[in-house]
Design brief:
The protein is α+β, with helices and mostly antiparallel strands. The chain has helices spanning about 5-15, 20-30, 30-50, 60-75, 120-125, 140-185; strands at about 200-205, 215-220, 225-230, 240-245, 250-260, 265, 280-285, 295-300. An 8-stranded antiparallel beta sheet has the order 5-4-7-8-1-2-3-6, with no helix packed on it. It is elongated.
């Protein structure tokens, strides 16, 4: 199976042109070309997503070194004929000096660029006729010059396409490196807060007629907060409330209510005596404007630590 040219896939991935009918049919049936096009589109997408980034730190030096190496490697690729790019001398179309053109480097024209006089101009100077002395065929020199010119043009287009693909890949790598650098190095961001220490904790178990699958865990954090995690609580028409109870006197006070989630972080009074109020209780309450405990406890546990 003849696969699509890599340079053509680059243009399709960059959105430079639409796929022809034959190309679309081939992409539908060829997994190899379809996978290569998908990879190129992902690279192009990474480059497009990072266009809006600004005020970013400079990427690491090895990123630019890699880009320079890739570009140098692309420029060193051989032409379609496999011959190195060098100074070329056009063959004379006849013996007259006006028809001889030598491509030589000048400050105004590099070696690899074509001469200012095109093939059509050279052909126009040569009188095309049937009375030609010698074995030379009329127009043969023009065909040779045109073939060399089109070959060089194709080589330049192919080299540019390879360079474009390399540049897209390198730019995406640079963008990924910059984003990674931003993610790791944020000098203006404050350091993350350390995890508070646990000063007391209690496993919570089902209480009274609560289903035994209901469980929970209570942890008192350094800084005066109570972290509560519950699971499998029975549904109630009201809400859940958290209490600290003194088991000796059975006095209690409310710490707060649980929301719809399984975790809650509740502030504790600064002067609470956890050695006295050591029982954590989760109750089912009604919307009845009565602040006292309903007497329907669902979970209970004793703090230790």
């Amino acid at each position: 199976m003849q696969h699509l040219d890599h340079d053509r896939l680059v243009y399709l991935a960059l959105g430079e042109s639409e796929a022809a009918n034959g190309e679309s049919t081939h992409l539908d049936t060829c997994e190899h070309c379809r996978a290569e096009l998908t990879a190129l589109q992902q690279v192009a997408g990474l480059g497009a997503e990072t266009q809006g980034l600004a005020d970013l730190p400079d990427p690491p030096e090895h990123i630019w070194q890699g880009i320079a190496a890739e570009i140098s490697a692309a420029q060193a690729l051989p032409s379609l004929t496999g011959a190195p790019r060098q100074q070329t001398v056009d063959q004379p179309l006849s013996g007259t000096s006006a028809e001889r053109q030598v491509s030589s480097p000048t400050p105004e024209r590099p070696i690899n660029e074509p001469t200012e006089r095109s093939v059509s101009e050279l052909a126009a100077e040569r009188p095309i006729s049937g009375t030609t002395a010698g074995p030379e065929v009329p127009g043969a020199g023009s065909h040779r010059s045109e073939g060399r010119s089109s070959g060089r043009s194709r080589a330049r287009r192919r080299g540019w396409s390879r360079w474009a693909a390399t540049a897209v890949t390198a730019a995406a790598a640079a963008a990924v490196g910059v984003v990674g650098t931003v993610s790791v190095l944020r000098p203006n961001d404050p350091p993350p807060d350390p995890t508070p220490a646990v000063v007391a904790q209690a496993p919570l178990a089902a209480y009274g007629s609560t289903p035994p699958t209901a469980t929970g865990d209570a942890r008192v954090l350094d800084g005066g907060q109570l972290h509560l995690h519950v699971a499998n609580l029975p549904s109630v028409p009201g809400y859940y409330e958290v209490w600290l109870i003194n088991p000796t006197t059975m006095q209690m006070f409310s710490v707060g209510t649980l929301g719809g989630g399984s975790d809650a972080l509740l502030p504790l009074p600064p002067n609470v005596d956890l050695s006295a109020y050591s029982v954590v209780d989760v109750s089912a309450e009604q919307y009845d404007n009565k602040p006292a405990h309903s007497g329907d406890s669902l979970l209970r546990g004793t703090l230790t630590g």
